[in-house]
Write a structure and sequence with these properties.
Oligomer: single chain
Structural class: alpha/beta
Largest sheet: 8 strands, parallel, barrel
Strand order of the largest sheet: 12-13-16-17-18-19-20-21
Number of strands: 29
Length: 765
């Protein structure tokens, strides 16, 4: 190529892309796009006719806000941050889909704004943002694409991802340069619209439970999956916010004894193209596109703004039952994916302003495994996230957040930084620092694993706990050192900077991975239904199938599996820290060995309430409720301070002691030796701190014996000064748990411990 031709190609990247592809294929694509573009321009000319007047309005607050304007005129103020844009139009759509474009000519501090008289709640709208198309510098403006308002409070419609919604030519013959070839077809007929919502709720009658962290028990659930098959919820409400607010759903939560529900993502989300091509859907919802809008697919009352009121009523109903609402939020990436993804919102507003780009600005920095990463260091991105968080607290009533891949939010320019702008802003925000904040303390980038590193104010998902407990009960721990830390609050991870035991959110299972029943029924994932040749999902399950892979007709295998379920649940609910249960684990829910059911919006992902008709699963649910009642009644099981291993009073016992099978206190060597049995003594006479009236906190003392061995064993019960006698409270070897087993044993005697079991004994003075 001559130097002149080289210069021409550099100056015209689109021509360079065309030359790199097959000429006939390029010609066919070009002809199709040109015809669509002519139709689009004709439609735009028609839309410009009769556009309403746009008054200057105000740059604050961002989004579409219905209000009374100048001279008492009723209308909506539109404000959009679009830093490098050349022009912005707000596009209004009537019930037939006809579009009216209204230019926003006012620009204040990179915010385009205007007040449109007569626009009322229920109005559907979107934005067209004009600017340069130059992917080589990260500029991807394309006014042919209708964009969702990042601050939209309701969304009407679903993303189906036809070729028209891509800013580039999705089906360009040479995919290596496809992202550089602009697609001028109009996306408006194919994308959802934002909806103007009336802010008319002040929450005067709502009473937040405000459960202290140490008293919290989290129940992770999916709004749709939890209610979709519930027989006592009216069919028209199943799978919706209204269904979760129904007394039948709330009754299960209150009888169980949980204090908070952690809802899998309820921000408006989109389905990925690769799932839609396989006839599947994103079920979990970790693909957000609207950070202010409740996902419209979970609304029973409508999607023209009604979903907002329905969500609020759900929160009120849960609060009325004493249950907090925590949202699982995905601010680390959006549904626009990488450079070959669709143009739905932020990419078309200001690609360089919202996303982390690589040294080659065509490419996205991906710390999430989802194609892109929000650039939280940028002020406008940080503002978007914190405005969203405050909105869900102050106007939607929620009580806290679990941050998906939180390490990605804590990155400064590249590395994870616990002094990052995001964490600093949260720490000083008068609204956000008062709610529950849970970090998933890792991402997929270099240096992203940060368990134990988040600052005070934050709690964390503790995967060390998950792994140690799974390994102990499947007989894979080389010794019991790690288990000792996990049972008592993980002081090795969290006893710094004023953090407390409740910094650790203890869990054995989560939405991601095996259910509890599958954990004892499968050793290998069975994800064929996901359509990815079983390549997706983790290989590291730390599971034991009790000798048979999958469902079994062998009564002995099934009895052992149910015992293991009781062991795992009992261990979790007796451990110091904040326990998290997954919906359905208490009743034996199975996903058939699928450890990545993110796209299974069907019976695989939904909770099967018919399990409660089977006696063995009713008993498991009853044991879970009984353990939570026990935990609630005894402060020694939900301590607010770490154990010291010392007496808190001159005449007291050490607050924590460990015993070997022969009844002697464990030595340093015992911690390093292989062991299947561990005795844990919790002193209720030596709890640090005082109650609300300033009185010392005292409680019963307990001895827990955990035995993972395949054969029964004897355990010598510690005598004086630890106890004169013990009363058996819980015995996981039993299928049915009586309210009070009634067995009393003297200190110093040998206790027969059944194979693979947990025995909890209350100390009798």
């Amino acid at each position: 190529m001559s130097s002149a031709a080289e210069q021409e190609a550099v100056q015209d990247p689109e021509r360079k892309a065309v030359r790199a592809a097959d000429p006939e294929a390029v010609a066919a694509v070009r002809a199709r796009i040109a015809e669509d573009h002519r139709s689009k321009r004709a439609g735009a000319r028609r839309a410009a006719t009769g556009a309403p007047a746009v008054w200057p309005g105000a740059p604050m607050p961002l989004g579409a806000r219905f209000r009374v304007g100048p001279d008492g005129a009723v209308g909506t103020n539109f404000a959009l941050w679009a830093g490098g844009a050349e022009a912005v139009e707000v596009c209004l759509f009537d019930e037939r889909g006809a579009e009216t474009r209204c230019p926003l000519t006012e620009l204040t501090h990179e915010i385009w704004h205007g007040f449109v008289p007569g626009v009322r709640p229920g109005q559907r709208y979107g934005y067209r943002v004009h600017g340069r198309w130059d992917p080589w510098t990260g500029a991807r403006w394309n006014a042919a694409k209708l964009l969702l308002d990042p601050y939209a409070r309701a969304v009407d419609g679903t993303f189906t991802l036809p070729p028209e919604v891509y800013g580039h030519v999705r089906d360009w013959p040479d995919q290596q340069v496809a992202d550089t070839v602009r697609d001028d077809r109009d996306s408006a007929p194919h994308v959802p619209k934002g909806v103007v919502v009336h802010d008319d709720d002040d929450w005067v009658e709502d009473r937040r439970p405000k459960t202290p962290w140490a008293d919290s028990v989290i129940y992770e659930l999916h709004v749709r999956g939890f209610t979709r098959l519930h027989p006592d919820i009216p069919p028209e409400l199943r799978g919706t916010y209204a269904g979760l607010a129904h007394p039948a759903a709330i009754d299960h939560l209150t009888r169980l004894g949980v204090t908070a529900v952690e809802l899998l993502p309820v921000h408006q989300f989109a389905h990925e193209d690769h799932l839609l091509r396989r006839g599947l859907r994103n079920y979990w919802g970790y693909n957000s596109i609207g950070y202010f809008a409740p996902h419209a697919g979970y609304s029973a009352s409508g999607t023209a703004g009604q979903q907002v009121g329905e969500f609020k009523r759900m929160v009120r109903a849960l609060h009325g039952a004493g249950i907090e609402v925590i949202l699982d939020v995905v601010y680390n990436h959006t549904a626009e994916a990488g450079e070959l993804g669709p143009t739905l919102s932020l990419r078309g507003i200001d690609n360089r302003g919202y996303y982390r780009l690589q040294h080659d600005p065509r490419r996205y920095a991906d710390y999430t495994g989802c194609g892109n990463t929000l650039h939280v260091v940028q002020p406008q991105v940080l503002r978007l996230i914190t405005d969203s968080l405050r909105y869900w607290v102050t106007e939607m009533g929620v009580d806290g957040f679990r941050f998906d891949l939180a390490a990605a939010l804590a990155r400064s320019m590249h590395d994870v930084d616990m002094l990052s702008p995001f964490l600093a802003v949260i720490a000083q925000d008068p609204v956000l620092r008062r709610v529950k904040l849970i970090a998933e303390p890792w991402d997929v980038g270099s240096g992203g694993y940060q368990v134990g590193a988040f600052p005070p104010l934050w709690t964390e998902w503790n995967d060390h706990y998950r792994d140690a407990v799974r390994d102990f009960w499947r007989g894979a721990l080389p010794d019991v050192r790690d288990l000792g830390y996990r049972l008592t609050g993980s002081s090795d991870l969290y006893a710094w900077g004023g953090r407390r035991p409740y910094a650790s959110v203890n869990f054995v299972t989560a939405h991601d991975g095996f259910t509890l029943r599958d954990l004892v029924s499968y050793e290998h994932k069975h994800n064929e239904a996901n359509g990815e040749s079983n390549r997706d999902g983790t290989h590291d399950n730390r599971a034991w199938n009790c000798g048979t892979e999958g469902e079994s007709d062998d009564p002995r295998v099934n009895a052992l599996r149910r015992r293991q379920l009781r062991n795992l649940l009992t261990t979790l609910l007796l451990s110091t820290g904040v326990p998290m249960l997954v919906a359905g684990d208490e009743m034996g829910r199975t996903q058939g060995g699928n450890n990545n059911a993110y796209c299974q919006d069907n019976e695989t992902g939904w909770l099967d309430w018919s399990l409660l008709e089977q006696p063995q699963w009713r008993e498991l649910t009853a044991l879970t409720a009984r353990l939570l009642t026990l935990r609630r009644a005894h402060p020694v099981l939900r301590r607010r301070a770490f154990f010291s291993g010392r007496a808190q009073a001159p005449d007291g016992l050490r607050d924590l002691a460990w015993f070997a099978r022969d009844g002697r206190e464990m030595t340093e060597a015992d911690w390093y030796a292989p062991a299947a049995t561990l005795g844990l003594y919790l002193s209720g006479r030596d709890i640090p701190g005082r109650d609300a009236r300033g009185e010392p906190v005292t409680d019963d003392s307990f001895l827990a014996v955990l035995h993972a061995g395949a054969e029964p064993t004897l355990f010598a019960l510690p005598g004086a000064p630890w106890a004169s006698a013990y009363a058996l409270v819980v015995d996981t070897s039993r299928e049915e748990q009586a309210e009070a087993p009634g067995t009393v044993l003297e200190g110093g005697t040998e206790l027969a411990v059944p194979a693979r079991s947990v025995l909890l004994l209350r100390v009798l003075e």
